[in-house]
Amino acid sequence: MFNVNEYFDGTVKSLGFENKAGQVTIGVMAKGEYEFGTSMVEHMTVTSGEMKVLIKGETEWKTYGEYETFRVEKDSSFKVILEDQTSYKCVYS
Amino acid sequence: MFNVNEYFDGTVKSLGFENKAGQVTIGVMAKGEYEFGTSMVEHMTVTSGEMKVLIKGETEWKTYGEYETFRVEKDSSFKVILEDQTSYKCVYS
Predict the structure, then answer these.
(1) Looking at the complex, does the CB of residue A4 fall below 8 Å from at least one CB of chain B?
(2) How far is B11 from chain A (nearest CA, A)?
(3) Lesser CB count within 10 Å: N end or C end of chain B?
(4) Distance between CA atoms of B33 and A11, rounded to whole angstroms?
(5) CATH 2.60.120.10 fits A4-92, yes or no
(6) pLDDT, tens digit, 9 for 90 and up, residues A15-57
C-alpha cells in the first residue's frame, strides 16, 4: 500500500502516500551531507531535527528547524547538511 | 540504518530513528479505523491529513489536524479514525 524508498545506501528512507494535500513523502535522513534533484516543485518541511540547506542558484546556506518549510523549484536541486538524524515531509506540486 | 515497521497488514507503516528529541517514529496510515496500545508515553503529531482520536478513559472523540499533537499515557491505548491517508510523528518518552 505504501512504497518504501531508499536513497544513498539506505541513509535516506521515505514512505510515499497521497491525500488532499497532494502527493506526499515522509522520510528520515542520517547525519551527513546530501544533494537531491527535483522533478517537481517540492515543499520540504522539517518534522524533527534541523537541516542546513543550500538551494541551487542561491549563495547562502539557511537552517530550518521543526515545522519550518522551504520550497525548491522543479528541475532544480538542493544540498542539505545534517548534524543528527532528521525527518521531513515533502509535498510535491 | 532505519527500521521500517508494518502494522495491520501494511496499512500502517513507519520509520524509526533517534535524535535530540529522543526516540521517534514517523509513519503513514491508510483510511480506516485503528487501535494502538502504548508501552511508553507517546506524543503523536499529525503531519499531513487529519485524525479523529479517542484516548482510553476519555469519552469524547477529538480531531487533530496538521501539526497538532496529542499525548497518550504509558500502558494505555487510543483509537483513531481516518478519512484519508494521514501521516504522523510519534515521540516517545
Answers:
(1) yes
(2) 6
(3) C
(4) 32
(5) yes
(6) 999 999 999 999 999 999 999 999 999 999 999 999 999 999 9
**Are the beta carbons of B15 and A2 separated by less than 8 Å?**
no
Cβ-based contacts under 8 A for chains A and B? 87
Cα–Cα nearest to B93, from B44, B45, B41: B41
d(C-alpha A6, C-alpha A14), whole Å: 7
Residue with cell string 496510515: B29
Q: How many residues in total does chain A contain?
A: 93
Q: What is the ipTM of this complex?
A: 0.95
Closest to A91 measured CA to CA, from A18, A14, A1, A3:
A18
The pTM for the full model equals: 0.96
Kindly state whether B89 is in contact with chain A, defined as any CB-CB distance less than 8 angstroms.
Answer: yes
The domains of chain A are located at 4-92
Cβ–Cβ gap A48/B84 under 8 Å: no
What is the residue whose three cell numbers read 510535491?
Answer: A92
Residue A54, chain B, CB below 8 Å: the answer is no
